[in-house]
Every structure is written in structure tokens, then in C-alpha cells.
Amino acid sequence: MTGIADGAGAVTATPSAGTPVPPPPHMGLGVSLQPADVTAKASGTFPYAADLWAEGLLWAAVLRSPHPHARIVSIDTSPAAGMPGVHAVVTHADVPGDASHGRRVADRPVFAKDLVRHHGEPIAAVAADHPDTARLAAAAIAVEYEVLEPVTDPEQAFAAEPLHPDGNLVRHIPLSFGDPEVVGEVIVEGLYRIGRQDPAPIGAEAGLAVPRPDGGVEIYTASTDPHADRDLAAACFGLEPERVKVVVTGVPGAMGEREDPGMQLPLGLLALRTGHPVKLAATREESFLGHAHRHPTLLRYRHHADAQGKLVKIEAQILLDAGAYADSSADTLAAAVSFACGPYVVPHAFIEGWAVRTNNPPSGHVRGEGAMQVCAAYEGQMDKLAAKLGLDPAEIRMRNAMATGDLLPTGQTVTCPAPVAEVLQAVRDAPLPDLPSDDPEDDWLLPGGPEGAGDPAAVRRGVGYALGMVHMLGAEGADEVSTATVKVTGPVATVICAAVETGQGFTTLARQIVQDVLGIEEVHVAPVDTDQPPAGPASRGRHTWVSGGAVERAAKMVRTQLLQPLAHKFGMSTELLTIADGKITSYDGVLSTTVEEALEGKELWATAQCRPHPTEPLDETGQGDAFVGLAFCAVRAVVDVDIEIGAVRVVEMTVAQDVGRVLNPRQLRTRIESGIAQGIGAALTENLRTSRGVIRHPDLTGYALPTAVDVPDIRIVKLVEERDVVAPFGAKAASAVPVVTSPAAVAAAVRAATGRPVNRLPIRPQAAVVNRT
User: Fold this and answer.
1) Helix (H, G, I), strand (E, B) or coil at 191
2) pLDDT digits (tens, 9 = 90+) for 620-636
3) Lowest model confidence (mean pLDDT) among 35-39, 156-160, 744-748
4) Measured distance CA(670)–CA(676) in Å, rounded
5) How big is the chain by its Cα radius of gyration, in Å?
6) Which of 514, 586, 720, 760 is most deeply packed, by most CB within 10 A?
7) 482-610, which class in CATH?
8) What is the pTM of this model?
9) Where are the compositionally biased (Low complexity) regions (predicted)?
């Protein structure tokens, strides 16, 4: 073999004359295996919850509060109950079990009883024989409210009257690391605000509840954590968990726990009350009102550095608006405080964080929660330091880049690979895109497009850098465990695991793992329901690590069962046998047979668990080994800004990422690109606006998602494959860290183009306007 250097300077093997070229692998890890459901999704036959039907079906509608804060004086359901076609109306009085629920804290009522705490809170639900009848009946319910003054400013929540029996403070973390008396030679300060981003799944929430003969109920919905949803529903319905079954339908997009329990629980109650299957397909408005959003955040920062730009101390205050209920705000705050300094070496850090209840829409888990908000702030501070010291923005980041063995401000040692300088250097060295030409055909490339653009002479180009980090799996002592079963019958393998496919590619990965371990090409992944052992939520790369690890262990156990008879027959250990390309061979070549022949007439199966090493909660000073693993990313954004009208066009996003190991190249690229697109939305367009707690324009006209025209060229210039030895396969979570990093990079590029501070996301047009006089 000879070698030639490719364009990136790497050496690529090329065959010598006459050397046969082996065919590329078509299955197993490292291959871009096509998802099994791609044809069904492309042809429109893939079943989502909104497509389901059952004999005797009724339709549900939920009455929601028009006020963000009010006392309920009375509820009269008789106008609805008396309408023809209405089968049942339920309120708080009809909840037989726990009247409140929550992911971490059970503080959210199924139906409001005495108080309404946010706009859109469920008051009652109706089941009728037609969806229009159900909606009309819900609207006919007479509710008398005593409207109260809403608390919508999180800074006012500290002194306001308690909005909830648990008070207004969800969590407070005063992180202290190092010497508080240290002062740097150069100090910069900043105030940053991050808006309310909505997950905005293209497929809105839907579900079907079917009563069971044993008095239980089955719920068909796009759940991302079915066992948690089952337990929550069983507690609400006053039933044993085994009498409630959650069946996962197709998930039409998910950025975390996207499902709204406020929809599932009324469905189950109505099905139990009527004895009929009951279906609800939420409108886009109901979707915006019901599910959780990214935490709006206020951040105050003070960075200290020496004359060479090395960080000395960081002080910060972080205030998260949790909305009306706690949900996952405690977890989000822990991530925000822990990563408040970014992937930089900081010897002294003092970060104080709060999450508070308000009468704003509920906040919860959205991809990159906590880490995204602080990344926009600490990267804004790094740009300020660079400007004050006269340094290149990339250079000041390079001088402070974290590496394996450094400490987080929580006192935890970074033991995983941390190629922060490497990914930054990769985007720094990448060629910049060409400037627009004067060709009239390129007018559409101007910010605002040909109809909305101003004077082309007012367009300025900016280049900005950002480094981001996220944690993988749960944190602070969360028991991360998943169970999987692998069954083999003849030439076909089946994987049974309750890990939900949310678009992250788990079902494809599970097939690849079994192919890799057992050499079996035809692998099926069973549908998910709660009759299977739990696998936990589909978030933070959990299923690649934990569920993928469980599948691998189960497959290896089946592999041992397959190879033991052969090894015994030939007087050798199973370790001396290999499986590759569907063939079993011994180290000495004496044994050579196909996997299919070895499996003939056999049925093998094994069940295994995967549980990562434990973590611990942060203590009273924010110290502790709270995270299992970390992932890092560098993004360079290039933007064109019309400085007269404030229009911004993102020209290119250049990405280098720490991925551990590439398991499926096509899926990995898709996940990174989708994360960048979501980050661009957070940077420029996505903000679920409220007025005194009331959501304004809860639709996809008022809430602007980036389209294909808004998403620029995305260049992935480097994927660092330095395997994390404690992770199965060595792979890392891939989709959250681009979401975290890209908004900060876009903001940095707009700063570079305009010289303006750009301290708010999404970036308002007025923030990019420059007085040319």
C-alpha cells in the first residue's frame, strides 16, 4: 500500500497495482446505516399519535385559563355537560388520585382548583363524539375568575407574595471556588438576557387513551420517558402502575421531554370516566400553552484577567425564570452554575444562581438547558476582554482553553477527553467564505433579501467564535440505568429496549451494535411500551451511552452462547473466535463457518443492564462530582449585517466537535446540523413573547422558526475521535453542544460586524443598527 495526503493533510491509504480492494462494510458500527423507518416516514405511512383510531372513539378538548394569575371563584360545567354529544366533563374534583404532578417536584395540578398560576393552565376537560363538539363544550364551561396581579419579573419574585405553597424560590446555588479576594489587572462586566425558546416540534402533541377490561387504561402517545409517564398517570388515576400502560407512538420531533402531561392525564381520566377510547390532537396554540419552554435567563458577569488575557476570576449571578412550576428547573440551574465559566481554566469562581417561580409560562427541559444561556454570556465576556486587551477573539480563547485534568468550578476533575484547543484551532484555521459578488443575481444573499434589503453599501461582515460544553446523562446522583434484551432466532435478531427513538437515531444504533457483535444483518427493534423494563428519558445523549451499552452487553452475552459450543468442539476458548462479515473464524483458521449456519435451529437470548459510574449532588457551596461526562464544541460564525436596518444573514457556520467516536457518520452530521439550526433560531428569531404573562401570538406565524433559507452552509471541519474510556463505544452526545454554542457564535459575529455589545438573545434588529454619521 502507498499513501497520499488529502486536502486536510491526513494520510489516506491507496491500493498498489494489482491489490484487491475490499468492499466497504455495509453493516455494523461506523457505517451510515439507513434507518429502518425511513421509507414509511417519506411515504407518509409512519404512524404518529395523531393518526390513531379506535372503535367508539370520543374526542377530548381542554379548557385553559385566559389569565396568568387568578383566583377561581366558581366552575359551572352544566352548560357543557348538557350539550348533545358530550359524554363527560372532568375538573379537579374528578381526579381520584394525586391532584398534582411534576418531573422532580409534584407541584403542578392536573386541573387548577383554587388558583390559576399561568396563562393556559388546564381548568377542565371534555369528551364528546366530535372534536368540534368537544371544543364548543369546553368553551361553554362557565368559570368565574378573580383576576390577580401577575408576577412576571423574576427579580420581583423574591419579594412578591408566595405564588405557590412551596414559595417562589425553586433552588439557590451559591458556588464558591478559590479566593474571593483575588482581583485581576483587567476587569470587564456585562448584563445578558436570554429569551424564551420553545421546542416547537413540527408535530404538535397528540394522544389516545383506551380503557382496559381490568379497570385500567392504556395511553398511546409520543412519550420520551414512558415509565415516568406511567407512574405519574397511575398516581393521578389512583391505580396500581401495572394497570396503566403507556405505548410509545412515533415521535414527531423532540428536544427533550416534549410531551405535556397536562394533555395525557385528562385523556386517561376521560377514558376511565366514559369507558370509551378518547383522543386529543392539540392545536398549535394549545401546544404553545401546554408544554415547557427554555428558561428565560438574566445573567450578570464580571471577568478578571491578567495583562496577557489569562483568566483570574469570574463572578456571576444567574437568575432563571422557572415560570409557574418547578419542573426541571433545579437541574437546569445546576448545569448553568456549573458551566458558568465555560470550557476555560478559571482558578477562582464565585457564581450565584437562583431559579424562581413566576406567573410566566412554565419552563423545563429543552436541549442544552442551562448551558446554552451561560454560553451566550461568558462568550460575550470573552469578546469584551479581547477588545479591551487588543487581542484576537480566538487567541484569548486559546490562551484559556480547558484540557483533560483541569478542574471545573465545582471542583470536579475533567477526566474525559477535553480537546477544547484542538476544536478551536480547527475552526480558526478553516478558510473563510468568499465575499458576495456585485452580481445582481446575488441580491438575495443580502440581509433581508432583495425586497427587504437596504443599501448594499451598509452591509458589514463579521466573524465570531464560541466554545461550548454540555454534560451527558443525568447529574447530581441521578440513577442512570437502562435494560435491554437481545433475542436471536435463526438469521434474525430482535432488540427489546424501552429507549424511545426521538430522532436521535437510537433504533438504528441498536441495529448496528447487534450487527457488529453478532454478525447478523437482519435486526429488528421492538416497539416501546411500559411492559418492558425501564430505560429512562431520551435526553442528554443517554440512550447512546446507557441503552446502547445495555444492548451491547446483551449482544455479547448472546455471542458467548453462540460461540461456546463451537469453542468446546474444537477445544479452544471463545476469545479465540471472531465474528466478522457474517462469518465465524478461529485464530488459526481451523474453524470457519457462517453465523447463519451456527444459528440454525437455535433460539438465543440475553438481558443486560448498563449503569454508569455514580455522581453526587452539589453541596452547599456548589462543589461535587456531579457529572458523568462532558462534550465540547467550537463554532465560527460568519454573518453579514445591514447596519442601517439591523438585518442579519448568517453566511456560514463552521463546526469542530468532540464526538468520542463516530458511530454513524450520516446520522452524526444530521444531528450536528439540526443543533446548529436550532441555535440559529435562538440567536435570531425564536422568542415566545409574553405581555404581562399572556403568550402573544401562540402560533408559527408569531413564533418565527428558521427555515431552509435562514440556515446557512454548515461546514463540519473536524470531528475529534478521542474515545471516552468510561463510555460504551467511547462515543459522546452530539446534538446538544452545537445548540449551546452556535447562538453565542452568531452573537459574537454580529458584535464583530457592528461594534455593538449584543447582550440579548434573540438579537433584535435595533441591537445591530449602527449610526453611520
Assistant:
1) strand
2) 999 999 999 999 999 99
3) 35-39
4) 10
5) 28
6) 514
7) alpha beta
8) 0.93
9) 7-19, 445-455
With contact defined as beta carbons under 8 Å apart, do 523 and 494 qualify? Answer: yes
Residue pLDDT, tens place only, 207-229: 999 999 999 999 999 998 999 99
Nearest by Cα to 227 from 481, 608, 40, 521: 481
C-alpha distances out from residue 338 to 204, 417, 458, 492, 612, Å: 33, 18, 41, 46, 20
Picking from 174, 175, 157, the residue whose alpha carbon sits closest to that of residue 166 is 157
Residues listed for the chain: 773
Q: Give the angle subtended at the CA of 671 by the CAs of 434 and 701, to the nearest 5°.
A: 80
Q: What is the three-class DSSP state of 300?
A: strand
| DSSP helix/strand/coil, 668 | helix
580, amino acid identity: A
**Beta-carbon contacts of residue 253 (< 8 Å; ≥ 6 apart):** 199, 201, 202, 203, 502, 503
pLDDT band at residue 471 under the 50/70/90 scheme: very high
Query: Is 178 exposed, middle or buried (CB count within 10 Å of its CB: 0-12, 13-18, 19+)?
Result: middle
Fold match, 297-476+617-767 / 482-610:
yes
H-assigned helices in 238-347: 261-274, 284-290, 329-338
CATH architecture of 297-476+617-767: 2-Layer Sandwich (3.30)
- The DSSP symbol for 211 reads E
- Rounded to the nearest 10°, the torsion over CA 693, 699, 700, 703 is -10
Distance of alpha carbon 217 from alpha carbon 530, whole angstroms: 12
Q: Express each pLDDT in 561-570 by its tens digit.
A: 999 988 888 8
DSSP 441-475: GGGGGSTTHHHH---GGGEEEEEEEEEEEEEEEEE
**How many other β-carbons are positioned within 10 Å of the β-carbon of residue 597?**
10
Distance CA 570, CA 574 (A): 10
Topology of domain 50-149+210-254+257-279, CATH: Aldehyde Oxidoreductase; domain 3 (3.90.1170)
Cα separation, 201 vs 253, in Å, equals 5
The dihedral region occupied by 246, where left means phi > 0, alpha psi between -120 and 50, and beta the remainder, is: beta
pLDDT category, 455, cuts 50, 70, 90? confident
**Residues 163 and 155: beta-carbon distance below 8 Å:** no
* pLDDT surpasses 60 at 478: yes
Domain locations in the chain?
50-149+210-254+257-279, 297-476+617-767, 482-610
- What pLDDT sits at residue 443? 60
Q: Are 303 and 384 in contact (CB under 8 A)?
A: yes
Residue 591 confidence (pLDDT)? 82
Q: What is the pLDDT of residues 295-338, one digit of tens each?
A: 999 999 999 999 999 999 999 999 999 999 998 899 999 999 99
Query: Look-up: residue for cell 439557590?
Result: 172
In the prediction, which pLDDT does 12 show? 32
Residue 715 grid coordinates: 461546514
Backbone angles phi, psi at 663, to 5 degrees: -95, -30
CA 498 to CA 517: how far, in whole Å?
A: 20
In angstroms, rounded to a whole number, what is the distance separating the alpha carbons of residues 590 and 567?
A: 11
1, burial (CB in 10 Å: exposed 0-12, middle 13-18, buried 19+) = exposed
Q: How far apart are CA 248 and CA 229, in angstroms?
A: 11
Q: What is the mean pLDDT of the chain?
A: 91
Which distant-in-sequence residues (6+ apart) come within 8 Å of 39 by Cβ? none
| CA 24 – CA 42 distance, rounded (Å) | 27
Q: Do residues 427 and 634 make contact, with C-beta atoms less than 8 angstroms apart?
A: yes
Burial code (b: 16+ CB inside 10 Å, e: under 16) for 214-234 equals eebbbbbbbbbbbbbbbbbbb
Query: DSSP characters for 523-558?
Result: EEEPPPBTTSPP---S-TTHIIIIIHHHHHHHHHHH
3-state helix, strand, coil in the chain (%, to 5): 30, 30, 45
Q: What is the rounded CA–CA span in Å between residue 415 and residue 691?
A: 46
